[in-house]
Amino acid sequence: MTILPIHPAENASPEALVAFLRQCREAARSDGRERLVSISLKVDALDPLAVLEAIFEPGELHFYAERPNTQTVIAGAEALLTHEASGADRFASTQRFMDDVLARTIAVGDVDAPFGGPHFFSAFTFLNEVEPGEAFPASRVFVPRWQVARAGDITTAVANLLVAPDADLVTLGERIWRAHQKFNHFDYATAASTEPDAPVAFQTTEVGDFRAAVAGGLSAIAEGSVKKIVLARAQDMRADRPLHPLRLLNGLRERFPECYSFSVANGRGHSFIGASPERLVRVSKGVLETEALAGSARRGVGASEDAALGSALLSSEKDLREHQHVLDSITRRLAPLGIKPESAGRPVLRKLANVQHLHTSVTATMPAGVHLLDALAQLHPTPAVGGTPREEAVARIRSLEGFPRGLYAGAIGWMNARGGGEFLVGIRSALIEGNKARVYAGAGIVEGSDPEREFTETELKFRAMREALIG
To answer: Among 427, 98, 459, which residue's Cα sits nearest to residue 262?
Structure first.
């Protein structure tokens, strides 16, 4: 990526913008390949979700991810460049696409600001391949036309455009100038809800037979084929009115500020939304962060009951064994990359609004030449959403569950031009289309698991999504 020492906010005018774009067009003419031009500006405080909601179009791709309690959020929409892939090579294919784009990128403005510069928004399904008719491809990465992000008190807006060797510079300049003016004086009025205040009414249908799936998983464990297998439930909910995915998402982020709230749209009317408690992997300044999150219990009604349930979870042989499977897998999977993870000796409790988990943070230094997507390809899917051994467990899941997972338990995240980025695990989630929602929840099955107890655990996880949908 080429970063030019030009700041669009200084001596800003349509004429100066066209003069800059003329330089970009000359670069495109030098080798006959279009240039991605990325313009970053710090702007007055904006709410990225409100911005995304204001311009929401079901026919456009969008991406949104937020961790409210860390005051970081990023949103982007309207795909400028897109790449899809499937199969075992999908992560490497995505990296090659990114490398090619960045090799012909020109960036200006507040590129070094938090979330400055071009970003790549990605979603990888649970499996390397998808079935006919699924809402999302096995992998998709896109560069948005516009992006708004906030880190603490700093809001950064990014406009991206393509400059071809024969580009009409006046038209491009006018488009960017309008976007610049819009984000400096954004009008939220168009985002005002006109929906009735009454709660949404739903009819709910169970998909598959979860108890039978757990019994099948226990049989595989008894045979010695797997040590752990994670099985999901799905429910189809039909509403009495169209559902707006971003308004549903707002309810989730307010209800679960300790989780990642996210939305990914496919541009064909489907949005995958959720409030995930689990980070898959983060890379920043050469340091990798991931986590083991496995082993669950409900929250107590009062402080005493809650503490008792937490204490029981911390001493549960079954849950500690399940958690250790995940932690061991992380270490084993990253070893071929030369990554040496470090973690605390014993898990701690991660308390969410309706459930508590065993949690262990993991960190490691990234070796030279190793990319975030290299680590992601090794880690996904983790034993927390697949099982152990991974290949044997994952191969059994589809036939036991009775439905395709799609993006459920997939990897959803963003990457920047500096090699950093963050991916979350797409759990506690729902696929929204019109007035329909398919909601998902899963549980880890190990020796000693009980189908009724696992069913109850998934009910706890379902509750948050159903309450958010009902409003």
So the answer is: 427
